Amino acid sequence: MLRNTFIHLPGVGPKTERSLWDIGYIEWQDVANRPRPRTWGAARWDDLKARVGESEAALLARDAQYFERRLHASETWRIYRFFSDKAAFVDIETTGLSGPDAQITVVGVYDGNDVHQFVEGIDLEKFQEFIEPFELLVTYNGKCFDIPILRNRFRRAHLERKGHIDLRYVFAAQGFSGGLKGIEKRLGIARPGEVAQMDGYAAVICWFRYCQGQTEYLDLLRQYNAEDTRNLKPLAETACVMARQKLVTGTPLMEGANSDGG
């Protein structure tokens, strides 16, 4: 989907993107290689071609942040397929404070195969090195919560250089509102055992009980965070499929809309 995308370019909105598709300019290469359509002025078309070349260079350089910066948050799903092999699904737990000064207790990162967790007072600082190879961060409500807090704590990780998909905005554009657990329930994703009834407040309580010496509560907090983190991948894939189907219905891109979220 990313090479079919034009709305990240200056002066191109959803209607213009759709009109390009309708007259056969389906991919960036169509703009680069085919003659200018009669409805476009020469200067405007030359600028579009230059921007398309810039986009291709950014994609080949695997610069996910280039596209995130130019897309509305609800449209960042278009990045996902190309960068999914270097995607980190991230969720944090805190002491309950708000704002970037909140104290992190646990960071969970799902790499698509395993959940890796970093705990305050044990190995939290290792997160900074671990996250370095990833090119794309996937969160739920991370623009407002997780990522600002992580940036404040781990300044040398340069998280601002990575792409970011906040699924909250993608799902909102599909008519899904509310928190992560509510979205999971609507999509039939169930949580096991004790963590099924837990929420963010319960996670804070677990941390304080652990700090008071009840070490079993750290295991429970880890389980809760692992579910938060691991579930982000199926949620991302579902959101991408839904968003793509909605976008391409009735367009020349409709063929293959049900195949994947890319």
The CATH architecture term of the largest domain is 2-Layer Sandwich
Structural class: alpha/beta
Taken together, the total number of domains comes to 2
Strand order of the largest sheet: 3-2-1-4-5
Amount of beta strand? 5-15%
Layout of strands and helices, then pairs:
Elements: H1 14-22, H2 28-33, H3 42-60, H4 64-70, H5 80-83, E1 87-94, E2 104-110, E3 115-119, H6 127-130, E4 136-139, H7 146-153, E5 163-166, H8 167-173, H9 180-186, H10 200-211, H11 216-230, H12 232-248
Parallel strand pairs: 1-4, 4-5
Antiparallel strand pairs: 1-2, 2-3
Short description:
With 262 residues, the protein is an alpha/beta fold. The protein has two domains: 2-61, Orthogonal Bundle (DNA polymerase, domain 1), CATH 1.10.150; 82-237, Ribonuclease H-like superfamily/Ribonuclease H (Nucleotidyltransferase, domain 5, 2-Layer Sandwich), CATH 3.30.420. The chain contains twelve helices and five strands.
Highlighted features:
alpha/beta, DNA polymerase, domain 1
General description of the model:
It is a single chain. By secondary structure, this protein is an alpha/beta fold. It has two domains: 2-61, DNA polymerase, domain 1, CATH 1.10.150; 82-237, 2-Layer Sandwich (Nucleotidyltransferase, domain 5), CATH 3.30.420. It contains twelve helices and five strands. It has helices at 14-22, 28-33, 42-60, 64-70, 80-83, 127-130, 146-153, 167-173, 180-186, 200-211, 216-230, 232-248; strands at 87-94, 104-110, 115-119, 136-139, 163-166. It has a five-stranded mixed β-sheet, sandwiched between helices. Helix 7 links the parallel strand 4 (136-139) and strand 5 (163-166). Helix 8 (167-173) runs parallel beside helix 12 and helix 10 runs antiparallel to helix 11 (216-230). The chain is elongated and about 75 Å long.
